[in-house]
Amino acid sequence: MGCSSCGTGTGKPGGCKSNGGCSSGGCNRMNAYDWLQNLPFADIESVCKVAEVSFNRGSRKDFFRNNTLQQFEKGEQVTVEGVSGIDVGEITLTGEIVRLQLKKRGINEFDPEMKKILRRSNERDLELLDINKAREPEALIRARAIARQLKLEMKISEVEIQADGRKATFFYIADDRVDFRELIKIYAGEFKVKVEMRQIGARQEAAKVGGIGSCGRELCCSTWLSDFKSVNTTAARYQNLSINQTKLSGQCGRLKCCLNYELDTYLDALQGFPERADTIKVARGIATLIKKDIFKNLMWYVLPESNKQYPLTIERVRRILSLNSQGVIPEELEAVEVTSSKPKEVEPEFVDVVGQISLRSLEKNDRRRKQNQQKQKQVQRGGGQQQQQQQPAKGQGNKPPRPQQPQQQQQKQQQQPRPPQQNRPPQQNRPPRPPQEPKKDG
Fold first, then answer.
1. Residues annotated as region Disordered (predicted)?
2. Residues of the chain with pLDDT under 50
3. Which helix (H) or strand (E) holds 309?
4. Res 441: pLDDT
5. Is 93 exposed, middle or buried (0-12, 13-18, 19+ CB in 10 A)?
């Protein structure tokens, strides 16, 4: 996801993956905005010495202690402690905002077991990272093939290899418990790494894969959403949405997380509507409630003998309910007229165009095509006759053809003036030509 603040004007697209460091971090997934970045501190010793480091383009994050004397900024590549080795990640948060993130996740800032930042990544570390990251696609294909051979009911969604190549994490999806003890042995012997199996859900898989939602934006789970709350169809009913599984489901196959975004707003607005108003009694029968419009504060009812919908105001519904509680049945519903501010689209009138369409253009094209075909045939015939004329005669089969002078040389010879008659030698002094012998045939 590119950002506009790090363009360098070099012809490359915006984004820190093309133009170096990026202060906004918009090209990395699951970022948190550091709104305390420029806040001055009186006591430097009290500054939080823990930094948030992201791995694999932001799909995984962890906290590391900075015991070095170096000050790291957002977007820098650092080498940290890994599982029996080292790993390379990117700094995403530093300073006081990290302390708030630690409090949110319930992590102790002064935990002695917290891993440390070793140094800024050098060329050797980045080279190892690129080599091992290039192994991940082939490892994913091979891992899926092995799991299929063992007939395990699981799906390997992603393989993440550590920067030094000593450890590999296999993320998988399974509905039930899976006995993968034999699978781990095969993976360790096949890839020569320490194997870690981690189970994830369908929403986490969609977050790792990424994509575009039906709203036209990137998936929330792959950009900023980290806490997945349960979503049910009740949220759709409160918002008057049709219970259509294909429209309410996201790319993960579960109900969309965005159904919970506006649910609180709808619940607050629905508190102003009367309760126990699903049915009301009038002289024409019992009217049934079909929907509530929180934007216009209207309640729509349907009578049993027709399918026509009657919009009623909240005050009118409360009045009818109070009358029904007293045993009084009103004559009419007194529905209001709903006017729309949108201009009505005028349908175009039917116009009879029979006889107005001319086919002269098509006829002209056919005539031109036929004329072109006839010209081509004539050219082909003329070329065949020229070839027949250029064929040598019977007695001149072995005689080489006389070289023809180019057209420019012939023109030059014609333009050159002939010598005057005085300079020509007299014909009397010329030697006589020897008689030529007759040519013999064949």
1. 361-442
2. 1-26, 393-397, 422-423, 442
3. strand 309-313
4. 52
5. buried
290 within a domain of the structure (yes/no): yes
Is 108 within a domain?
Answer: yes
For the four alpha carbons of 297, 302, 303 and 309, in that order, the dihedral sign comes to: positive
Query: Which pLDDT value is given to residue 430?
Result: 58
Q: What is the pLDDT of residue 128?
A: 92
- Same domain? 264 vs 283: no
The encoded tokens of residue 284 equal 């024409």
Enumerate long-range contacts of 242-250, CB under 8 Å, 24 or more apart: 247/214, 250/206, 250/213, 250/219
Question: Same domain for 247 and 304?
Answer: no
Q: How far is CA 146 from CA 113, 134, 183, 366, in A?
A: 36, 20, 8, 65
Within 10 A of 178 (CB to CB), how many other CB atoms are there?
16
Final residue belonging to a domain, choices 221, 241, 269: 269
Q: Looking at the whole model, is its pTM more than 0.70?
A: no
| Residue that terminates a domain, selected from 224, 248, 269 | 269
The string of pLDDT tens digits covering residues 79-123 is: 999 888 899 999 988 888 898 889 888 899 888 899 999 999 999
Range of the domain at 159: 131-200
CB 248 within 8 A of CB 255: yes
Separation between Cα atoms, residue 219 and residue 299, nearest integer Å: 35
pLDDT digits (tens, 9 = 90+) for 50-84: 999 999 877 888 999 998 878 888 889 999 998 88
Q: Which of 231, 236, 239, 238 is nearest to 247 (CA)?
A: 236
The strand ranges marked E within 40-148 are: 50-55, 60-65, 77-82, 85-93, 117-120
Same domain, 109 and 146: no
CB 99 within 8 Å of CB 48? yes
- The one-letter amino acid at 285: G
Q: Give the C-alpha separation, 212 to 205, whole Å.
A: 14
